[in-house]
Amino acid sequence: MEMEMEMEMGKKKRERSKELDVAVRVVQMACSLCQRVQDGLLGRSADQIDSKDDDSPVTVADWGVQATVSWILSRCFGSENVAIIAEEDVQTLSKKEATGLLESVVNAVNECLIEAPKYGLESPSKALGSREVLEAISKCNSGGGPKGRYWVLDPVDGTLGFVRGDQYAVALALIEDGEVILGVLGCPNYPMNKQWLSYHQRYYRLMSKLSPPAVGSWEKGCVLYAQRGSGEAWMQPVIHDYGKLEQNSSARAIKVSTIDDPAFATFCEPVEKANSSHSFTAGLAESVGLRKQPLRVYSMVKYAAIARGDAEIFMKFARAGYKRRYGTMPRGWLSYKRLAGWSQTQEAAPWISPGVYF
């Protein structure tokens, strides 16, 4: 009996290791797709940008990443074994007037999938058509909840930062019976080297084009990942066009900051005032003795800043009645939770709710 239990535990551990391995690889692919789309958007008209019901922008990258991740996970684990919660649906892309937009999404997906071998994954035998891309996107319709097993994907978190050429994140997590099992957070514009954070993002983008590396991957962006029970979180550089993913050799362990004096601590908050009350957080920061200027970044990049020790505090006080889909929290949360214990919302609400909203 004891031997059977050990064998079962060993089998589950191997499965988890494969799931994390695939998740890291597919987020690397998603970051590559996003970088190409972002480069195409900058300095051009907004013909590849649409709006959601809440007026937040959605781009070719949102649909492209969702289709790519859905296709890869289904290929690696079997479509019947994969349930996904994600943000985008196919309603807009299915309209007659969206033919050009759909074509752009399909092209972005195929350009990404053809590079799958570079990331240690399998490409499709032939290019996907519009129907197959729409099917991959529409598969991301899991209802979530505290029971069952499902992936949670935010294709492009911080889309406003994305379309402005600034920070954004690609986030993926696996949840089982209400527990986050693993999380991966891709931050294509968040440098591995902390010193680059002192430069404005536009200057940083310019330097990344003027000063390419002699060999290997330049540390322009990073991918963070963690697994429940490991006690560690890791970071590796985003792979660029000239690189190839070396999963183990490129990764390094990360830890939260050891600073506990508010006078020397840095706090993160959202860039947009519409997403958080800057005046309230400034008053709160002053009251507890925080003296440094806040680190304001878009998206779940804030979780990366906390997890790897670039900042010590994250404060966000959303407007009343605001609801957030699962797609915007668990992946970055796991990286921090594995390193620094656990936390909850200011009202001590549980993280996993009955549906797809917090």
Automatic annotation (TrEMBL):
Tell me which cofactor or cofactors this protein depends on: Mg(2+)
The family database entries (InterPro entries) matched by this protein are listed as: DPNP, Inositol_monoP_metal-BS, Inositol_monoP_superfamily, Inositol_monophosphatase-like
Protein name in the entry: 3'(2'),5'-bisphosphate nucleotidase
Task: For this UniProt record, give its keywords in alphabetical order, as a comma-separated list.
Answer: Hydrolase, Magnesium, Metal-binding
Pfam families registered for this protein in UniProt: Inositol_P (PF00459)
Enzyme Commission number(s) from the entry = 3.1.3.7
Q: Which purpose does this protein serve, as stated in its record?
A: Converts adenosine 3'-phosphate 5'-phosphosulfate (PAPS) to adenosine 5'-phosphosulfate (APS) and 3'(2')-phosphoadenosine 5'-phosphate (PAP) to AMP.
Q: Which domain of life is it from?
A: Eukaryota
A molecular function (GO) held by this record is:
metal ion binding
Q: Which organism is it from?
A: Iris pallida (Sweet iris)
Q: Which family does it belong to?
A: Belongs to the inositol monophosphatase superfamily.
Residues spanning the membrane: none
NCBIfam families referenced in this protein's UniProt entry, alphabetically: bisphos_HAL2
The UniProt record gives the binding positions of Mg(2+) as: E87, D154, D157
Q: Name one GO biological process term.
A: sulfate assimilation
Q: What chemistry does it catalyse, as a reaction equation?
A: 3'-phosphoadenylyl sulfate + H2O = adenosine 5'-phosphosulfate + phosphate; adenosine 3',5'-bisphosphate + H2O = AMP + phosphate
